[in-house]
Amino acid sequence: MIALVAGATRGTGRGIAVQLGAVGATVYCTGRSTREGRSELNRSETIEETAELVTRAGGTGIAVRVDHLDPAQVKALAERIDREQGRLDVLVNDVWGGEPLYEWETPVWKHDLDNGLRLLRLAIDTHLITSHHLLPLLIRNPGGLVVEVTDGTTDYNDTHYRVSPYYDLAKVSVNRLAFSQAHDLEPHGGTAVALTPGFLRSEAMLELFGVTEETWREAKPDPAWAVSESPAYAGRAVAALATDPDKRRWSGKSVSSGELAQVYGFTDLDGSRPDVWRFITEVREPGKEADPEDYR
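User: That's the sequence. What structure does it adopt?
Assistant: Structure tokens below.
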């Protein structure tokens, strides 16, 4: 299996890349943060580290520095994968990088315009540019899979205001992109799915709450944190999709890692099956009380 995880430096992207490695895939891990230089997020994680984790998990990790807003760089990436592998089986569009750009509960006329537009470019343009250049390689053989990583399912996002107008539009758009790509891929035997993790214990989130993956339960920022998940959980969701001979049943759909865990039977690293979206809609939003462990 040949896979590209666009935006594999950290968080969900890294989790997906590593779990694809665990099922033996060759994974091209792209992003802008390398050991030679960081992106404007200025975090320490690098694509080289991700590639090494992929190889350690049992696959073959290949780190390639790519700015997915630059069509020429993405085109060169597609040509390299074609030259080296001759095919692409899985494309994961996980590029994001918008954390410092959105303002919570801020109307469009008050939100910084440049930051909002930059957020949309990072969240949407990167995915479109990557699909434009990589899908011709993916459709060369039937059975290709595209995973659009977002925040919130279509059902949830269509009925909830998400953070700010820019963030809201970004996440709804990525869900819709999976739907439209499913239409385009159907004649070629391909599948496109929108996937959302739940309350993600990313590197940045663990740092924010002053905990580690081993001590995460010590933080109490929100009741939903008790139903949080590691990046490996979404990674196992993608690995399950990629190895499913009947994956086309999911094409055009918007799903969460928790939903797919119930179908495929995989677990998070601790053996649980967290479903924070169900916890949010059934417990937190209606103001009910429930044991979060019942949603793991």
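Residues 113-138 form the longest helix (26 residues).
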